Amino acid sequence: MLPVADMHDIRTIRDDPAAFDAALARRGHAPVSQEIIALDEARRTAILAAETAQADANRAAKEVGAAKASGDDAEFERLRALVTEKKNTISTLNDDAKAQDAALGALLLTLPNLPYADVPDGADETDNVEIHRHGSLRNFSFQPLEHFDIPAVQGDGLAAPGMDFEVAARLSGSRFVVLTGAVARLHRALAQFMLDTHVTEHNLLETNTPVLVREEMMLGTGQLPKFGEDSYQTREGHWLIPTAEVTLTNTVNGLTVEEDTLPRRHVAHTLCFRSEAGSAGRDTSGMLRQHQFEKVEMVTICTPETSDAEHRRMTNCAQKILELLDLPYRTVILCTGDMGAGARRTHDIEVWLPGQDAYREISSVSTTGDWQARRMNARYRPAGGGKPQFLHTLNGSGLAVGRTLIAVLENGQQEDGSVDLPAALHPWLGGRTRITADGALE
Question: Is 43 a catalytic residue?
């Protein structure tokens, strides 16, 4: 890991503490610059004092030999005692510097990223700003149902194909689901469609990663230490990933890469695991908020100069999936109060769910600037020479598979209980175009 003083740019905080506090205030955070500066000054003072004491000890050590050779026993004993004293002082000062460093690191690790200037101020999702809308809402001749009530997907155990929450509850508890038959195949087809589209049309590098990671990887992308309760940890100490952002971003953890290898644009389809500790009572019906789910995740690793363009590019990649599936959506820029801790700017893409009569999030595409790179000590070597610089990292769903399944089912439902499926998926379903009311794929 990087020395903690670099988790945020200490020089920037020293140069303009008021601006740092003002940026944090936009996220509802209390001022901390003076506490940071005090800890940093104490740390640097201890380090400087230790270095001065070490220089004194080195000089005295050289003089010890000369005193011994000259037969000056008194001077020899004085110098030897001085060396011992300086060594004890150095040890004390180093311990003090380490303590200040640890305190500074503990503080910096909990601080959120600073929002970009174009991020709207606000308290919560009601202050988000719509920046794009696509597609027409379907005019139903009947009252559209939520996904779990559509006859085509109502399972009553493994004997009846569909979406079964009762069996899942017996297996694992609440917020799990068992998919069977046509619904399971549709779910698989969506993931394959997304992967293939991102690889062949968007030129992302398909990547298959573990779902178990070391603790330092969760620290690197910001899930720890503050948000540990939102994830699951094994008895052996590994963490189950909440998203492939963790593994894909950490592929450069601790590395200095060459600029000509950038940008690195990854896509991965993985299981994801979240405890949903902070969402008690929210979206408990159906598949909208699960402890285990699947996502197709995009991650870009690039230079600072290209990160804004990459953010727009990634947003377009996610939007394109919805457009190919003919699903209405809107894109909003999150306000400061609704944005995740690691983001400097986030675009949320919200798909229309007629069963809920609402737009619901299906992808968050965020740029973190160098916030994650600093935590990972991930840099690049400029092609034109010069000191290695911190990378920029971005992440976004491309898309959440379960939520896309919900959107396909709700927007394609018919009055007889069947579901018409998007034409873009037909090749991934063997040419089949609908799920009948009794759950058959035809």
Answer: no
Length of the chain (residues): 442
Instruction: For residue 171, give both structure tokens.
Output: 């297996």
Query: What CATH number is associated with residue 415?
Result: 3.30.930.10
Q: How far is CA 33 from CA 15, 39, 194, in A?
A: 11, 10, 44
Which of 78, 108, 138 lies at the terminal end of a domain, its last residue? 108
Sequence-separated (6 or more) residues with CB below 8 Å from residue 246: 213, 217, 218, 220, 221, 223
User: Residue 234 and residue 236: Cα distance in Å, rounded?
Assistant: 5
Does a structural domain hold residue 64? yes
- 289 carries an active-site annotation: yes
Same domain (yes/no): 144, 77: no
Binning the chain into helix, strand and coil, the percentages to the nearest 5 are 45, 20, 35
Task: Report whether pLDDT(281) > 70.
Answer: no
Distance CA 177, CA 149 (A): 14
Orientation angle between helical segments 33-70 and 73-108, nearest 10 degrees: 160
Which amino acid, 214?
Answer: R
| H-type alpha helices, 109-173 | 165-172
> Which one has a higher pLDDT value, 302 or 79?
302
Is 364 considered catalytic here? yes
Q: Containing H/E element for 83?
A: helix 73-108
Name the pLDDT band for 140 (thresholds 50, 70, 90). Answer: very high
Residue 7 zone, left/alpha/beta (φ > 0; ψ -120 to 50; rest): alpha
One-letter identity of residue 392: H
The catalytic position among 374, 379, 403, 434 is 403
Marked catalytic residue, from 44, 138, 289, 432? 289
**pLDDT at residue 381 is higher than 90:** yes
Q: What backbone torsions phi and psi does residue 347 show, to the nearest 5 degrees?
A: -105, 120
Parent domain of 364 = 125-435
* More confident of the two residues 96 and 7: 96
| 383, 258 contact by CB (below 8 A) | yes
Single out the catalytic residue among 185, 274, 344, 375. 274
DSSP of 365-416: EEE-TTHHHHHHT-EEE-TT-SS-EE-EEEEEEEEEHHHHHHHHHHHHB-TT
> Residues 6 or more apart from 3 whose CB is under 8 A from it?
101
Annotated active-site residue 275? The verdict is no
Pairing label, strands 379-381, 256-258:
parallel
